[in-house]
């Protein structure tokens, strides 16, 4: 799967990338009540402009992405000085308050996640095949402290369409994956995208404490 993503980036097959901040992020993030200054983890971040939007809301951003092309393009399309340094087996690029770690999300561990207090997933869970999604939900839960809030933007394909990525993740699966460690609230179910048949949905997640 990793090779497929690297190939997609090399060949520029990145139909998932949006050229403006996602409307569900813009509409729902403010109501989550994440304090300005809270660092936001963005797993499987691509070169999403959502990270610039979050930075514009006074959030330091830590994105994790496999493909070096994605990170280089993000930096080239942004403004300001880019610094590069190795950290914990990842190559990190920083521009302003956005730092992008190049490597596998599943190799990013709690010791590196110390300052993280919120998270944002658009098209990350749904980029992963079924067997890996459970691992993703568990790994995310390990990285964020109790009380952390996040926004998840998931996707459903038309009934019977089993293709992917992006994979179809139905609301019951979102609940099953995250309920063990998060409070899960459906915020919005969007309309099917014309011509594509995908339908995105926005979810608020709050990391539970050990006794909740
Ligand atoms: C569907 S794209 C979504 C990107 C971004 N979230 C967005 O909304 O544009 C999924 C991204 O995850 C990256 N990816 C896939 N598996 C990964 C992994 N295990 N660790 C880090 N990045 C990964 C891919 O290279 C790709 O850029």
From TrEMBL:
Catalysis performed (reactions): S-adenosyl-L-methionine + a thiopurine = S-adenosyl-L-homocysteine + a thiopurine S-methylether
Biological processes annotated in GO: methylation
GO molecular function, one term: thiopurine S-methyltransferase activity
A Pfam family this chain is assigned to: TPMT
EC annotation from Swiss-Prot or TrEMBL: 2.1.1.67
Chain sites annotated for binding S-adenosyl-L-methionine: 9, 44, 65, 122
Keywords, in A-Z order: Cytoplasm, Methyltransferase, S-adenosyl-L-methionine, Transferase
Keyword Transferase: yes
SUPFAM superfamilies xrefs: S-adenosyl-L-methionine-dependent methyltransferases (SSF53335)
UniProt xrefs under Gene3D superfamilies: Vaccinia Virus protein VP39 (3.40.50.150)
PROSITE patterns in alphabetical order: SAM_MT_TPMT
Coiled coil: none
UniProt record similarity statement: Belongs to the class I-like SAM-binding methyltransferase superfamily. TPMT family.
Name used for this protein in its record: Thiopurine S-methyltransferase
Organism: Halomonas mongoliensis
